[in-house]
Amino acid sequence: MGCDGKGCEECGTSGYTTITGCPQRELTPDIIDLIELSDLYSKGLPPVAGGALDQTKSFIDAFRLLSHDQQIIKRTLGII
After folding, report:
1. Residues 6+ apart with CB under 8 A from 60
2. With CB atoms counted within 10 Å of each terminal CB, which end of the chain scores lower, N or C?
3. Considering the domain boundaries, does residue 12 fall inside one?
C-alpha cells in the first residue's frame, strides 16, 4: 500500500512518484484484468454469469473497440 502522500522509500518525502516509462509495465496481469472488468462494468457489462466473465475474448475486444469509436464520435460532435 502507498504512503498516502506522507513520504516513503519509493517517493522520498514528496508523496509522489515520477513514471518515466510506459505505465503498463508497472501493472501486473491481475490488475490489468481488474481494470478491464471495471471498464466493461461501467459500460453495463457486469462481471457475473452471463456478463463479462462469460464472453469470448473476441467479443470483449469488439465491444471495447466499438465503445472507443463511439466516444470519438461523441467528442467530434460535441456530445460529451
Report:
1. 36, 40, 52
2. N
3. no
